[in-house]
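Students often ask why inverse folding is considered easier than folding. One informal answer: many sequences map to the same fold, so there is more than one right answer. In these notes we will look at a single instance of the problem. The structure comes first.
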C-alpha cells in the first residue's frame, strides 16, 4: 500500500483489509512524506492486526511510481496485491484473486472489476469496466489470448487497486517507467509489460473493490488524475498524452528486447508495441498538418490497418480528417 496525506479515508481501507475472509501474510505501507496523520493511523492500526505491518516512511517525496516500487521491493510474499489509500476492498477480494492464481498457474497477474463510489462512499451507479468500455466482447477477446491487442486499443484495463501479480516477476518489471505520468503509471506498466512477456493476465468480472472518486485523490507527491480524468484524457487522445504513450511503448519494446530476443511471442509483442507507437505519432502528425498532407497520412494509416488494430477504426479516421488540433 502506498500512502500520502491519506488520513481522510485510510481507516476505512485498512479496516476492509482486516475484514478479508483470507487475511494477508503481511502489509507493507510506503508513505510518501505525509504531513497529516497518515503514519499515525497506520501505526495505531498495526497494534490490533493479527498480521505484521511494516511501515516505510520516505524522507522526501518519491512520486507514485517510485513509491510503489519501494513498497514492492520490501514484500516477501509470492503474490503481491497493490492497494491505494482511499478505496474499500470487498471481503472476498484476496480469497477470490488467490483462487484465480491457483486455477491459472501460468498467469502473471489477476485483476477484477470495481464499483465506483464518490468521496462519501455512495454508489455512483456504474462500474469500472463499463466506463472503460471493456464489454463482454472485449473480455472474450482478452480471455482467448488477444490481451495485448485489447489493451493497446483501450488504454489501461488493470487498475492497481484491483490487481495482484507474482512477486517472481518483479525483477523484470523494475524499474517502472515513470517519466510519462499522463500516459501511464505503475499499474498500466505492470499489466502491459507482463502480457507482452507472455505472463498473461486473468480478468475477473466481479467487482472486488469499491473505487473511490474524489477531488483530492492522491497517490503520492502530487495529484494523480482521478479515474474519470484518465478516461477523458485517454479518449480525447490529446497530443501530449499520445506522444508520451508512444515513448512508453518504445521504452517497453526496448526492455523486452533486452530480456528476450529469441522468443517468438515476445518478438511479436515488440512489433505490436512499436506499431502502436508509430500509429500514435502518425495521428499526431496528421492533426498538425493540413489539406493533402493530412489526407495522405490518414490514408496511409488506414491502408496499413493500424486504425483498425490500434484506434477506433472508422470513427478515428473521420475524427482525424475533420479535426485539426486534437486526435
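Output (designed amino acids):
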Amino acid at each position: 500500500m502506498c500512502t500520502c496525506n491519506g488520513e481522510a479515508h485510510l481507516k476505512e481501507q485498512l479496516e476492509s483489509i482486516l475484514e478479508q475472509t483470507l487475511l494477508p501474510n503481511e502489509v507493507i505501507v510506503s508513505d510518501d512524506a505525509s504531513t497529516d496523520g497518515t503514519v499515525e493511523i497506520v501505526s495505531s492500526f498495526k497494534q490490533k492486526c493479527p498480521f505484521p505491518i511494516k511501515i516505510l516512511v520516505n524522507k522526501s517525496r518519491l512520486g507514485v511510481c517510485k513509491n510503489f516500487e519501494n513498497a514492492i521491493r520490501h514484500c516477501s510474499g509470492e503474490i503481491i496485491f497493490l492497494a491505494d489509500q482511499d478505496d474499500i476492498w470487498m471481503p472476498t477480494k484476496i480469497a477470490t484473486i488467490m483462487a484465480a492464481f491457483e486455477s491459472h498457474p501460468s498467469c502473471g497477474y489477476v485483476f477484477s472489476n470495481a464499483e465506483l463510489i464518490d468521496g462519501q462512499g455512495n454508489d455512483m451507479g456504474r462500474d469500472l469496466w463499463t466506463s472503460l468500455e471493456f464489454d463482454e466482447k472485449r473480455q472474450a477477446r482478452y480471455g482467448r489470448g488477444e490481451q495485448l491487442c485489447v489493451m493497446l486499443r483501450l488504454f489501461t484495463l488493470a487498475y492497481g487497486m484491483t490487481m495482484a501479480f507474482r512477486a517472481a516477476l518483479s525483477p523484470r518489471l523494475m524499474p517502472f517507467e515513470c517519466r510519462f505520468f499522463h500516459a501511464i503509471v505503475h499499474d498500466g506498466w505492470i499489466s502491459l509489460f507482463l502480457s507482452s512477456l507472455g505472463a498473461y493476465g486473468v480478468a475477473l468480472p466481479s467487482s472486488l473493490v469499491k473505487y473511490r472518486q474524489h477531488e483530492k485523490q492522491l497517490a503520492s507527491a502530487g495529484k494523480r488524475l482521478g479515474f474519470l480524468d484518465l478516461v477523458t484524457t485517454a479518449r480525447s487522445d490529446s497530443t501530449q498524452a499520445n506522444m508520451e504513450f508512444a515513448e512508453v511503448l518504445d521504452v517497453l519494446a526496448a526492455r523486452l528486447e533486452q530480456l528476450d530476443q529469441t522468443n517468438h511471442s515476445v518478438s511479436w509483442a515488440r512489433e505490436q508495441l512499436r506499431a502502436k507507437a508509430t500509429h500514435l505519432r502518425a495521428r499526431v502528425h496528421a492533426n498538425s498538418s493540413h489539406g493533402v498532407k493530412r489526407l495522405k497520412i490518414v490514408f496511409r494509416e488506414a491502408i496499413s490497418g493500424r486504425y483498425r488494430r490500434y484506434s477506433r477504426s472508422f470513427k478515428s479516421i473521420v475524427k482525424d480528417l475533420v479535426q485539426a488540433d486534437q486526435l
